[in-house]
Design a protein that fits this description.
Order of helices and strands: HHHHHHHHHHHHHHHHHHHHH
CATH class: Mainly Alpha
Membrane topology: Multi-pass membrane protein
Number of helices: 21
Oligomer: single chain
Subcellular location: Cell membrane
Shape: globular
Helix content: over 70%
Strand content: under 5%
Protein name: MFS transporter
Largest sheet: none
InterPro entries: MFS, MFS_dom, MFS_Efflux_Transporters, MFS_trans_sf
Number of domains: 1
GO molecular function: transmembrane transporter activity
Radius of gyration: 21 Å
Structural class: mainly alpha
CATH topology: Growth Hormone, Chain: A
Length: about 425
């Protein structure tokens, strides 16, 4: 039996675990690689959608469903994932789950039907479902609770590097290999990360002695708590739309509305992911700095969400603004929505961190699936031509998305976050 399940940390473990090198080797490298792979899989369709559309003759709604099923299976795994993380620890959960992503990537690579691609994409979503949650759980175990926003931001920035790899670098690679061969390479990369996590992460996690049934019951308590929903609802639509657009619809918007060619589109997506990495680090650093003056993370998160909505409005405004500037602003301020992972994790004790984070993640990813599909359905109301969907189609689809986010901003304003002195506890 693994020591991770039954052993306790020795005094030497307690001393070394607080050193930077230890944290870097056992959290940021293995779990950061896991999140890197997760984001690479999440956003790759924004670039290869042209190949899928051309080879399989898929309409916008099918592309939305195919890409969004990743979010659906990802969401389905969240509740059992949270329970298992709190019961067995991040190492014992994350490494085996990545094997599903390996299998899914292989199926996606060899499939020639829409159903086969959906099954492969679904398995990928299931396999990487624990990437960020495992990392947050590890941070909750080894780091002081007040440093969670900064550590989460650093891990999210590594995920941004995965999104970056799915833009111009992948576009250049696809000049030499097919998208099917690219997914074979992704399968090998995911297997490598699985091995790294298994070998690198320490086995010194001591779970609380409760049954799985008791731990599962605590999830129901979270969902019945108004504090949980209060912390979730103000940013959840913005977060879901941020993921939906970046993982698929940003590419078509750059092609159809901004009139960019494939190479320019890939470069713009690349700079967007650079902004994503910068945004994650910036919002994490700002939050960590301002906490010294009593400014709570919810203030930073909500302010960022408000500016994020402004950039979405610019996407449909028709104003002569550089698409590069819009894409970078969208990606930079969209990362503010991810700060809520740390906010909800801070609201509970460390032994509940896995369940509360995954419970919030479930809500986010179910919405991401629904909204990504919904955007495709709205776009289909204006049939695509040789130049793609008309500008009006994007104005309506993104307009609906903006309307869904406005109530969250109003809810955030009702908190009067600028007056908050402490984080609410569940």
């Amino acid at each position: 039996m693994s020591n991770e399940n039954t052993g306790s940390c020795t005094k030497a473990d307690q001393e070394i675990k607080h050193t930077f090198l230890y944290l870097f080797l056992t959290i940021f490298i293995p779990f950061g690689l896991g999140h890197f792979v997760s984001y690479l899989f999440r956003t790759v369709n924004a670039l290869i959608y042209v190949d899928l559309e051309r080879e399989l003759h898929l309409p916008a709604s099918s592309l939305g469903l195919l890409t969004g099923v990743y979010f659906l299976t990802f969401a389905t795994a969240q509740i059992p994932l949270g329970v298992m993380l709190d019961r067995y620890g991040p190492r014992s959960v994350q490494a085996p789950m990545l094997l599903f992503a390996v299998l899914g990537s292989l199926i996606f690579s060899f499939s020639h039907t829409e159903l086969g691609l959906i099954i492969g994409r679904g398995l990928i979503g299931l396999g990487v479902a624990g990437s960020l949650m495992s990392a947050i759980k590890a941070c909750a175990i080894w780091l002081p609770v007040e440093r969670l926003p900064l550590s989460t931001a650093c891990l999210l920035s590594v995920g941004g590097l995965g999104a970056m790899a799915s833009t111009t670098p992948l576009h250049e690679l696809l000049k030499w290999i097919s998208w099917r061969e690219a997914f074979l390479i992704l399968a090998l990369l995911t297997l490598f990360v699985c091995v790294v996590i298994h070998l690198s992460v320490p086995r010194t996690y001591k779970p609380k002695h409760t049954t799985l049934a008791e731990m599962s019951k605590a999830v129901g308590t979270l969902y019945s708590s108004w504090v949980f929903w209060r912390l979730a609802l103000y940013s959840v639509f913005a977060h879901a739309i941020y993921m939906s657009v970046l993982s698929l619809w940003m590419g078509p918007w750059l092609r159809d509305v901004a009139q960019l060619g494939e190479s320019s589109m890939a470069n713009t997506l690349l700079w967007g992911t650079v902004a994503m990495v910068a945004g994650s680090l910036a919002f994490g650093s700002i939050t960590d700095y301002l906490r010294r003056f009593g400014v709570q993370p919810i203030m930073v998160c909500g302010a960022g969400v408000s500016i994020f909505i402004v950039f979405q409005s610019l996407m449909i405004s028709g104003l002569p603004i550089s698409p590069l500037l819009i894409a970078m602003g969208f990606s930079f301020f969209g990362t503010s929505t991810t700060m809520n992972y740390a906010i909800v994790a801070q609201s509970v004790s460390p032994e509940l961190a896995g369940r509360v984070s995954s419970s919030f993640n479930l809500v986010v990813f179910v919405l991401a699936f629904v909204l990504q599909w919904l955007m495709g359905e709205i776009l289909n109301l204006w049939p695509a031509t040789g130049q793609g969907h008309p500008v009006e189609a994007y104005q309506w689809s993104l307009g609906v998305m903006i309307a869904l986010q406005v109530p969250g901003v109003l809810l955030w304003l009702s908190f009067k976050p600028w007056q908050l002195k402490t984080v609410a506890t569940a």
